[in-house]
Design brief:
Elements lengths: L1 E9 L2 E7 L4 E6 H7 L7 E7 L7 E10 L11 E4 L2 E3 L7 E4 L3 E7 L8 E9 L6 E2 L2 E2 L10 E6 L7 E7 L2 E4 L1 H8 L5 E5 L8 E10 L15 E5 L31 E2 L9 E2 L14 E5 L6 H12 L3 E5 L9 E2 L11 E2 L1 E6 L4 E6 L5 H18 L3 E9 L14 E6 L3 H9 L3 E2 L2 E3 L5 E3 L7 H7 L4 E8 L5 H15 L29
Length: about 525
């Protein structure tokens, strides 16, 4: 949109001529009219909108806010006239025209400024342009950018802005697009999974959060951002809708070579550009060993992973999000000077040792556990992971061996591992977990308090080793040290023996008085 022609004051009547091309948007409000007309206090003002393109253009006017003086005896003193029809009071105009070259809009004020006024948007579109998505004409379709969502009126499917899917219940857009929705969310919706020739799924909006520095949608601020929280989660499994790939490592934020990028805002003047992730956004894990804890009694496995991340050169490369994980977030537990946030599950890499470390800080929700472990296994195979090592703990009172006081405290379980791997485990001082006979006379491993170990071993078809430490309830930091000492000896993670481990910063607050009840 651009203002052209002339702006002149004709006594108490002013005219501004505005040209608009197909797929343009312009907001019209009382305040906007004043700025166009140099702030003159006028009884009447006319805005004449002209489309210089072909006649095959749709003009559509929508009003988010419309509250003028009510009519008296059928006459409007405070009104907006659109193509000879007057609108006043709360009679919201909804105008959609086709095959016209101009649209005249007149605003007449009662001069007392005692009503809120109106805020309307005018959109010009060309119905013959079928491939106009992702905020620019001829851009990428949503089948190539499944993270693109459309912001629409509640009962329509024509987008006035677009957004990026960042989580199952969150989309990111510009504050300029979201400002109109914030206090009127029931009249809008988000559409996801829209692709060529097929409709999408309409999702209602729960709440809109504008960036505090966005100046309520001002288009020329660097903080022109907004988050929209959805009432219902987006289904990702169909593949038609997916979250946008935003790698954590700044080195991977650069676009792939030759990538044109994706425009994700429908308002061209305030568009945001999102590039597809480069192929090395997450380094290849081909040949890597994945280390992860089972959330088990005493949390010895999780504590051992904390020690590993604190003492070895780990780089955080990804956040893992799944419905099976409780949504937790906090500060960096290993370095108080690092402002990076920590979530329910984070992935770290030690590239020099070909190790991937997945720290799981949340128990698994029982109804979602099977899906999580299945998808985790599929991801490991797709990423090229060579083997999986799980750190777990079991209740010490369930031990059945005859040398409980002085014998080895570690046990191992293996599945699909080479014979050499078993020999190395025994050489490092671990024993295979003793089997017990159940009521049907079948020998099987008994894992009391070990979390999802057995379930994972049944699902995962990669070579898997589980290190198990017998523990008692209480301070299990030394159990974690024992686990990590064995792991480093077995996998030769450090050069020195009997390493004195640095304790994570967050462990200082592990014990003490209970959390004040007032915070709940």
């Amino acid at each position: 949109m651009r203002v052209a022609g002339r702006e002149g004051c004709l006594a108490c009547h002013c005219i501004a001529i505005i040209t608009t091309t197909a797929d343009d948007s312009v907001f019209i409000s009382v305040m906007w009219l004043k700025s166009v007309l140099a702030g003159a206090l006028l009884a009447s003002a006319t805005v004449l909108l002209v489309t210089p393109t072909s006649r095959n253009v749709n003009l559509e006017l929508r009003c988010d806010t419309f509250h003028l003086q009510e009519s008296k005896n059928g006459r409007c003193q405070d009104f907006v006239r659109i193509q000879r029809v007057k609108y006043c009071g709360s009679n919201i105009p909804v105008i959609s025209t086709h095959n016209v070259t101009k649209l005249a809009i007149t605003f007449h004020s009662n001069g007392r400024f005692n009503y809120p006024g109106f805020r309307c948007s005018l959109t010009a579109s060309n119905p013959n342009m079928q491939h106009c998505v992702c905020g620019k004409q001829g851009g990428n379709g949503t089948d190539k950018a499944p993270w693109v969502a459309a912001l629409v009126y509640a009962n329509e499917s024509q987008p006035f802005c677009t957004a990026s899917i960042v989580r199952e219940t969150w989309v990111l857009t510009s504050a300029t697009c979201a400002a109109r929705i914030k206090h009127n969310k029931d009249n809008y919706a988000v559409m996801v999974g829209v692709s060529q020739g097929r409709g999408g799924v309409r999702v209602p909006i729960r709440k809109v959060f504008l960036h505090p520095a966005s100046l309520h949608g001002h288009p020329h601020t660097q903080a022109n951002l907004a988050l929209i929280h959805l009432k219902q989660p987006i289904t990702f499994r169909s593949g038609e809708a997916q979250p946008v790939c935003l790698p954590l490592n700044p080195a991977h934020h650069r676009p792939a070579s030759g990538s044109p990028g994706i425009l994700v805002s429908g308002v061209k003047a305030v568009a945001m550009l999102v590039h597809p992730c480069t192929k090395d956004a997450l380094p290849s894990l081909t040949g890597y060993t994945l280390i992860l804890p089972s959330v088990s009694v005493g949390n010895a496995g999780q504590l051992a992973v904390d020690l590993l991340i604190t003492n070895l050169p780990c780089e955080k490369v990804a956040v893992v999000h799944h419905p099976a994980l409780y949504p937790l977030v906090g500060g960096n537990p290993y370095d108080p000077s690092n402002q990076e946030v920590t979530t329910s599950a984070d992935l770290y890499l030690i590239t020099s040792r070909s190790l991937a470390v997945l720290q799981i800080r949340s128990p698994l929700i029982k109804t979602e556990r099977c899906d999580f472990l299945t998808e985790l296994t599929a991801w490991c195979k797709a990423a090229g992971v060579r083997e999986v090592v799980m750190l777990a703990s079991c209740n010490a009172y369930e031990r059945w061996d005859n040398n409980q006081m002085t014998g080895p405290q570690l046990r191992y379980l293996t599945a699909r591992t080479p014979q050499q791997n078993t020999q190395d485990l025994r050489s490092a001082g671990a024993l295979e977990l003793e089997k017990r006979t159940d009521e049907q006379g079948v020998e099987q491993s008994f894992l009391s308090g070990a979390g999802f170990v057995k379930h994972f071993m049944d699902i995962c078809d990669l070579p898997t080793t589980v290190l198990i430490k017998f523990v008692e309830e209480g301070d299990n930091t030394m159990d974690a040290v024992v686990l990590l000492n064995f792991l480093t000896t077995w996998k030769k993670l450090t050069e020195a023996k009997n390493t004195s481990w640095k304790m994570p910063f967050s462990w200082k607050n592990m014990f003490g008085r209970p959390t004040p009840r007032e915070i709940y």
